[in-house]
Amino acid sequence: MNKTVLAHFAAAIAALSAGAAVVATRFVIGETDPLALAFYRYFIGVICFVPILPFIWPKTRIPLTEYGKIAVLGLLFFGFFPWAFNASLQYIPAARGAVGLATIPVQTLIVAVIFGRERLTLQKLMAVGLAFAGIAIVFGPEAMKLSQSDYFVGDSLMLLGVFSAAIYSVFSRGTLMRHGPLFVTALAMVFAVGALFPLTYFQSGVSGIPTFSAEGWLAVMFLGTFAGAIQFSLFTWALRWLPPTTTVLYLTLNPITAMLFGVLLIGEALEFVLIAGLALVVSGIFIGNGALTGLWGRVFSERPNAEGGSRPLVER
Which range marks the domain in which residue 131 is found? Predict the structure, then answer.
């Protein structure tokens, strides 16, 4: 089996574990607070990375400015993003949160266009329009109801966290290419854990081993290992062998996984509005990543001629 095929499997498994992480967070969030959960998750992730860190450390000297960039990226992606993510799931169901999480590729596209990192096209505009139509269907009407005011808080936190992840995705690419995605991910996580510890200590009084239920411990261990260190390692390894757009497409598996696990394990209702919104979001992501490029090229590049054949619309 060649590395390209393995990369597809790695990206798919990483995306599926990210969707399952939404449900695992819902399992344990009632036993702790969002900040402490982020600390515990990535502390376990750092422990997983420590044995391999000497082997993935770059051979060339790294300037202090690069360490600063990695630290900022780590605080953003492994600090603020998980806090907002965990906090949002105190107010919204796992499936609803996963739909918001699935907008990462679209929000990344918007940030990239605003900062001149990517050119905006009609196809990309269609993708953004479809995705935000899905967000409006799922988030808008229910968020405005007085009885569902908590949804507005949860949705806002999720989308804000996703926006910070989008900023990380756009501005981390150069650093990842220079020093290796696995090394940058590991070191960024170390910086984030170092920053989260004092905040968690003063807010939650973390001074020893936390007291989770058996199910809570399983959820935290899953979040730190398979949905932490392993998930990010698989995803960054897939980025080495697959085009970024191909790899990001697998993120559309997140809400599907979370929805299925939420229905099967937590007993959440499978609402039609979630399915409709998810369909629009996924359609937008696929179009934004060029899924229709080949089809449009075949439809618009040729037209029938008088003999019943076809000829190019544009002379080559």
Answer: 3-312
